[in-house]
Specification:
The protein is mainly alpha-helical and 84 residues long. It is built from three helices and no strands. Helix content is 70%, strand content 0%.
């Protein structure tokens, strides 16, 4: 991360925090601590794993269909004439 990116990111966070304060939506530190549910829940982990498995299965099916189709299509090996 270069200096410009770091300064832009820090400025964005400070501006967002200031706007939350002006709008009255920032909340007190103890309220934020009560809302914080901590680490990732087991349900989130299971959904993430299920999505990963689904993507892997679909990718495997598509890969097999593509390789099977590629094996049945003849390749044209006749050279094409070159324009003068």
């Amino acid at each position: 991360m270069n200096n410009f990116t770091m300064v832009a990111s820090a400025s964005t966070h400070q501006l967002y925090d200031a706007l939350l304060g002006l709008a009255g939506r920032r909340g007190r530190a103890d309220e934020i601590a009560e809302r914080d549910r901590g680490a990732v829940s087991l349900e989130q982990v299971l959904w993430f794993a299920a999505a990963g498995v689904a993507v892997a299965v679909i990718a495997g099916i598509l890969f097999n269909r593509i390789t099977n189709e590629a094996g049945t299509v003849p390749i044209n090996t006749t050279p094409t004439p070159v324009a003068p």
